[in-house]
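Quick log. Single chain, no ligands specified.
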Amino acid sequence: TLEDEPMLARVTLAALFFGLVWVTPAWAQRSTSSDSVKTVVQIEVRDGSRYMGTILEEGGAVIRLETLSGMVIEIPRSEVESRRTVNGRIQDGRFVPFDPNRTRLFFAPTARSLDQGQAYFADYWIFLGQVAVGATDYLTLSGGALLFPSTWGDFFYVAPKLTLFERNRTSAGLGVFAGFITEDWGDDGIGTFGIMYGVLTHGHPDQAVTVGAGFAYAEGDVANSPALTLGIEKGLSRRTKFISENWLFPSAEIVIYSAGMRFYGSRIAVDVAFAGTSVGGGALPWIGFAYNFGQ
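-> predicted structure:
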């Protein structure tokens, strides 16, 4: 029961509650201004100039683009270096792009999916790498491995996620994180562990809450009770966001908590945070970055 848990666990749960209270009023304020959220096209031409707006016509030799200020320009197709879609919000008359790494908290997934053709490379604590790609608009395939040789064995994982629906501000998905260690594990030398989960995200990438539940497994044994996760995202400025990612294991009476900042541009996101557990031992720094590419 809650009374039997360590004091730090109770403090952590209270902090999560107040985090929800902190985020929820912003939903109410923004629920009447959903039209301020836009998906635009960013076109970069050979001289390095970039234009954002809505494509009016692109047949023939030119692309007619209406910019965010309402100006209509014609861009020769032969001068186009690259183009991609960008999601964001109109705020104080300016277009504010959303976090490009919207499909993840620090490490745990949100329910959002990469668009087909989008991809990213991520690195956590320098030694753990990950690659993800949008196979379709609803199926994200990802996996990772240790980037340097390990004295305790090679480790790699795969983590497919299927977004069941993504409407307005709510997304829901199912996924699996399957990890493998190839060193002194069982008869075949391969140890397996992971979690099968469901996840729900409500809100825009600059203001959202993610909740999830999953059953962990190891060497064929599945846990009797689910692990629970709660994530909070709150934009603080045009290029910064507060994130808190937290895990609760009721049967073990353990809470893993984390909180920190994400700094991001149009393609790069950098995370700096601290993580700890309710059983003590102090907080450890969390450092990660992701580079997004593709469409």
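Confidence is low (pLDDT under 50) at residues 1-14, 20-35.
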